Amino acid sequence: MGTRKIVVLAGYEAVKDALVNYAEEFGGRGKTRIFQNMDKDFGLIHSRGENWKVMRRFTLTTLRDFGMGKSSIEEKIIEECSYLIKRFESLKGKPFNNTMMVNAAVANIIVSVLLGHRMDYEDPQFERLMTLTNENIRLLGSRMVGIYNIFPFLGFLPGNHKTVVKNVEEIFEFVRNTFIKHLKNLDENDQRSFIDAFLVRQKEVNEDGSPHSFFHNENLTRLVRNLFVAGMETTSTTLRWGMLLMMKYPEIQEKVQQEISKVVGLAQLTYSHRVQMPYTNAVIHEIQRFADIVPLNVPHETTRDVTFRGYFIPKETYIIPLLSSVLRDKTQFEKPDEFYPNHFLDSRGNFIKKDAFMPFSAGRRACAGENLAKMELFIFLCRFAAEVHFLFSSWSQ
Ligand code: HEM
Fold first, then answer.
1. What count of Cα atoms within 13 Å lies in the side-chain half-sphere of residue 163?
2. Which InterPro entries match (predicted)?
3. C-beta of 114 in contact with ligand 1 (< 6 A)
4. Which pTM value belongs to this model?
């Protein structure tokens, strides 16, 4: 059995150097056995080489195209946020656990992009998809999955690693049934969803007779699941951190509310308002920095031998570019362990960008949903602050 080398990169300078200046060399994807079983080399998150390049380009262009025009992603976010706020209000200020509700709202935005329509929160199929996804996120951190990743020959034993793969199969089955339906009603001139856009590319390539197309069903099922999983847990966890921090710091919350009423007033809040709202923008950046929700990043892998900062690192080394060490780097942030929105403001209150703000990682492999996530965070958090006062009012009492 061959041993596998692992390299951990820590601190802003080293992480940025590897991910940005040595993007090609450090741009592979490190995979544990369980992910290899689920995605093989297909989809986006766990693929490599030419397959990854084609899937990434397609994903970014399609998300960008759906970002514009009628029924844009922004409208979907605004619509879903209204559903969520109605649900909060229906509880009339009684205490409740918001986890599943926020999860469902965020999941529905990505569902709406993928399928072209939202699903009812009570739809049993929607509930099942969320249950399977949440269960897998939990099981992936379990002891048995960890053991299986190190000693795959123990895979014959019963345990969580088997449940994870079974759950993923059920999600694939749902995706397959869905795209078969989409294929029946496909109108090339009226593409309503990410799946439609993929199927149109599939048809074009098939008509060209190209034998080596990447637009096959294996890639479609993985890509849809990748986007659903990557887009749900991350954004909803950040939103819940945002609520918590707003409750803990009512004086910061109040300043956000004042800026919203000054800039937006009674108009419909849109993403473009953020340029006039430096304080709110700084608070949201600080929420992401402080929450640090993907501390270890997603593992990378070297695509070739490289000498990096005097160290020789062979091809196919498993790389962990620690985002936590960047977001809390003392040389980049004045008060790294405090919640301090001034990290992103100059002395005159203007918003300032920081290169070390890397919650989405950096370089060619950085989060493919960054723009979507930023839009979701801005619209949801501003509307919570402006409309859902009871949520934020009671921490300090
Ligand atoms: C606050 C929300 C989010 C955070 C903090 C976040 C963070 C990350 C991070 C750290 C990575 C790994 C980057 C790397 O390997 O260097 C990643 C990858 C990825 N994210 Fe996100 N993400 C968020 C939301 C989303 C959303 C909404 C989507 C869906 C559209 C998404 C889709 C992806 C995909 C597809 C990848 C893999 C990219 C690749 O391998 O080329 N993420 N994300």
1. 17
2. Cyt_P450, Cyt_P450_CS, Cyt_P450_E_grp-I, Cyt_P450_E_grp-I_CYP2D-like, Cyt_P450_sf, Cytochrome_P450_fam2
3. no
4. 0.93
Distance 321 CA to ligand 1 centre (A): 14
Q: Which atom of ligand 1 is nearest to the CA of 365?
A: 41
8 A C-beta contact, residue 324 and residue 286: no
Per-residue pLDDT of the chain (397 residues; tens, 9 = 90+): 457 789 999 999 999 999 999 999 999 999 888 888 887 889 999 999 999 999 999 999 999 887 655 568 999 999 999 999 999 989 888 888 888 899 999 999 999 999 888 888 889 988 898 899 889 888 888 888 888 888 888 888 888 888 988 998 999 888 888 888 888 788 888 888 899 999 999 988 877 767 668 999 999 999 999 999 898 889 999 999 999 999 999 999 999 999 999 999 989 999 999 999 999 999 999 999 999 999 999 999 999 999 999 999 999 999 999 999 999 999 999 999 999 999 999 999 999 999 999 999 999 999 999 999 999 999 999 999 998 875 666 544 4
Q: With the C-alpha atoms ordered 122, 126, 129, 134, is the resulting torsion angle positive or negative?
A: negative
Helix and strand numbers (H, E) in the chain are 15, 6
DSSP at 212: T
Assign domain 6-392 to a CATH class. Answer: mainly alpha
| Measured CA angle at 25 (ends 20, 31), to 5 deg | 105
Ligand 1 pocket residue status of 113, Cβ below 6 Å? no
Ligand 1 pocket, 294 CB below 6 A? yes
Output the residue whose Cα is nearest ligand 1's atom 16. 366
